[in-house]
Design brief:
globular; alpha/beta; 20 helices; 49% helix; Isoleucyl-tRNA Synthetase, Domain 1; Gyrase A, domain 2; five-stranded parallel β-sheet; binds arginine
Length: 600
Amino acid sequence: MNQSIANLLFERIASAAAAALGTNATIDRAWLKPTNDPKFGDYQFNGALPLAKQLGEKPRDLAQKVADAFKVDDLCESPEIAGPGFLNFRLRPEFLATYLQEIPPVDPSATYDRLGIAPVAQPDKVVVDMSSPNLAKEMHVGHLRSTVIGESVARILEFAGHDVERVNHVGDWGTQFGMLLAHLRSTQPEALKDLDHLQIANLENFYREAKKHFDEDPAFADEARRTVVQLQGGDPNTLCIWKAFCDESLRHCHAVYEALGITGLTDRGESFYNDQLADVVDELTKLGLVQKSEGADCIFPEGFKTRDGDPLPLLIRKSDGGYLYASTDLAAARYRIRECGATRVIYVVGVPQKQHFEMFFAVLRMAGWAGDGVRLEHLAFGSMLDASGMPFKTREGGTVKLKDLLAEAVERARAVVDADSDDVESARAQFSEEEKAKIAETVGISAVKYADLAHNLATDYRFSWEHMLAMEGNTAPYMLYAYARIRSIARNAGIDYGDLPAGAPLTLEHPAEIALAKALARFPEIIQQVANDLKPNLLTEYLYDLSRHFSRFYDRKQGVRVIDAEPESLRISRLRLCDLTARAIRTGLYLLGIKTLERM
Ligand code: ARG
């Protein structure tokens, strides 16, 4: 299953086109698509129209020529021509059986199951800039999406074979730190004696108090400003306190990452680039890109205008010599490309920063820091709204802390688990307390992640507990349950999927069985597409579709017998389809950052 079926098919169409139309015809992979309706076969090639234009022929005649030259043999039936010249392809069950049969067994030493999909031959060095909260405050719901989407995208790219670094570009520098450190000095002098053990139980409150102090006490405001100067001037004592504060804030962040199951995130905040900022401006100035505007250093990338139609500048140094968000981003990108060798940098940041990224990418290109071999992407996501479409807030109107949101998710999932466990009929009634707690945690956290990933990234998304915790529909509970159910089939059959004879022939006869095999065989194609387009929602849709095909296959009326199928070879074949489905779901969920449960 190394190569996706769509790719195999496309290769054949390409050779048929070359044979029938000569080498002048250029054909595009995008012209081959899976069909929406099995009536039209499994794949449709809609290239006859553009090709007809290229070559000055009638689309239907041209489609006929390609169809005649198409080497049918094992892969599919003879293509059918439909409408103005669409070519429809229907896969042969025998081919599907061989294709799926070749999937190697699970490698127990691997972190995840590749299902036989080979990594890309030429890996990119990818930096995923994700999560990146400001350390002055507690992480809030706004950081959920960046963290969850970033993690999934990183896993998908790793799976595809790329070398991925997850970077947490935290906001750990800036004027608000003057206020925070001064407040720490004035209110907790004791804590400063033992910086290694500095603890701030509630960062949000601490920030609010510091701000109040700053607004109400002019002497304190002066002190805060002096502290900023000390910090920027590299005063050792101030730096130590700053460092301790950031470490404490990062500990809060990492507690959230742990709850979310995020690992391998490198904290490399804005302060890391401090001593590179002057050089960034220098280098850009030497390149002749910088212009002075009211004492500030600016770059005017082409095509950006203010509302009045004037050229829009990207500010890189203020008139007082201070640097900005964009200066740090330029330094960070230069570092990632030059020092880390990144060939692809992906910024998982909300839609509101769209223009910032467009402008700063333009500057990276102008400076030649990002050449043709470097891909820069702003993976922009929409805001999180509440169920009624309003900005997501606490009942009192404050920002919702991520920590609290995740705790609530687990609590709500626990209520679902308990409600069902009270029913003596339910298998869950016998689960231990420990197992129930584990199920609640997995279901709760997965529900939050899955709902986030199942939505189109760029649109705003409505957060709804009812929807994400529902057992029906494209939700985490549904998928986790589908997986656990398939795993339980092996237990009921008294076998271990791992003991099924590897490579035993698959028999695909019943329509529900063929449909399931087709859904399974699309796995490599989906992975490839998701890795290209960075759209985790395509993966959730696929997994949901796959599990519905499985339900039909396993359904007593519409489907086939599995555990008691006869003869034995058929029973083995069907159990292998069960196993492959479970494996595809487990790997798919892994790529979304979601752990599976063996029973629930
Ligand atoms: N700290 C920023 C914020 O909270 C996000 C940083 C995103 N990454 C970047 N390289 N600009 O809005």
